[in-house]
Structure formats: C-alpha cells, structure tokens
Amino acid sequence: IVEKDRFQTLGDLRKQWTESGVETSRATVYRRVQEMGHRCRIPQVKPLLNQKQRQKRLTWATEKQHWTVAQWSKREMPKCLKSSVKYPQSVMVWGAMSAAVNAASYQEILEHFMLPSAEKLYGDEDFIFQHDLAPAHSAKTTGKWFTDHGITVLNWPANSPDLNPIENLWDIVKRKLRDARPNTLDELKAAIEASWASITPQQCHRLIASMPHRIEAVISAKGFPTKY
C-alpha cells in the first residue's frame, strides 16, 4: 500500500488497514512503516513545470549564470528594502498589496510608488525591474508603460518562485503573523506593517546574494524546481 502511493498519510494508511480488518493505532502504523524502511516526510509543494517551461528556466539561468551579486543588487524588487549609506542608518521601503490588481491599477502603483522609490534608491542610475508573469504584469499596456518610462524589465520564466527572493520575505512575514491573530482589518494591517518593519536590510542583502546559487541550482536541476 505504501509503495503504491507515497503521498498517503499515516491516517490514510490506518484507515485502509482498519477497513481490511486490521485494528491498530497511528503510532503502530508509524512503527511498521519505519520497520519497512520507509520514512515519513512532508512533501514540498513545487510548481508543476512542463518541458517547455523547464527549458525556458534553464535558458534563463544559463544567460544569468555569470551575473555578480552587485548586478543582482541593481535589480528593483518590489516590496524589498535597501539600507541607506548615510549616518544614522535608515531604511527606505516600498510595499504594495491589493485584493485585485488589473493592468491599469498596477500601472498606477508603478507610477505613484515604484517610480518615487526607484528615484530615491538609484537616482539617475540605471536599474532593472523584476516582476513575474501575472496578467497585470505581462499586459501589453504595462509593457508600453515601462517602454515609455525607459525602464528595463528583467525577462522572467514562468512558474519560477524559487528564482525570486521576494518569496522568502513573504514567508518571513507569514511566519511572524502566525501568533498575531488579528480580529479586525485594522489589526491585520497593523500586524502586517509591524511584521514587515521587523525585516532587516541584512536579510534582504543575504537573499540578493543567494541569486548566483539559485542560478546554479536551476542549471544543476536541468530546469526542474529547486530547494529554493
């Protein structure tokens, strides 16, 4: 039964054994599975990638294989942080959240929040903007918006959250929110802001520095999902 379907839980196994007339406890099921040489693990949830998507991921990673951490640091990642070099140390933050974003509202966010943030962070220096392939991001009107504003957008492979370190920041926020238990919308907003404010620039820098390792992992996995 175990070898037929590796994704069954101990509860599933116990139910099947009970239905076949074998009364046993969950602990006994666990011991028997261990005795047979199997190990209980929680499966990692990864995006389903078809062959074409895997090839695009592999091509993308190969093209970026020799990018340095300094180059990745010049990529504008929405909702990320960058510490100021002035004393006393300060942090400039741009964050965005919405229940439903279409192309028009996304462009308004870019206009009113991303542009001022990029000006503060980079001044007149060039930078590369990164976003995924959400419909609002990949819309033709959004592409024209970036062209009209002279902003280079990083090409991005589909179904690749493991290549985007912002996902790790969201995971940090979620973990910090588990014990907050807000009861109202205002409490929820306050808890999110407090969780986000607790993220340090050093954490962001470490995530950016992980990009070369992520690229290597994709190449080693031949385009398949990685541990990231």
Automatic annotation (TrEMBL):
Species of the source: Cirrhinus mrigala (Mrigala)
Domain Transposase Tc1-like: start-end pairs: 2-64
Matches recorded under InterPro entries: RNaseH_sf (IPR036397), Tc1-like_DDE_dom (IPR038717), Transposase_5 (IPR052338), Transposase_Tc1-like (IPR002492)
Protein name: Transposase
Domain Tc1-like transposase DDE: residue ranges: 95-189
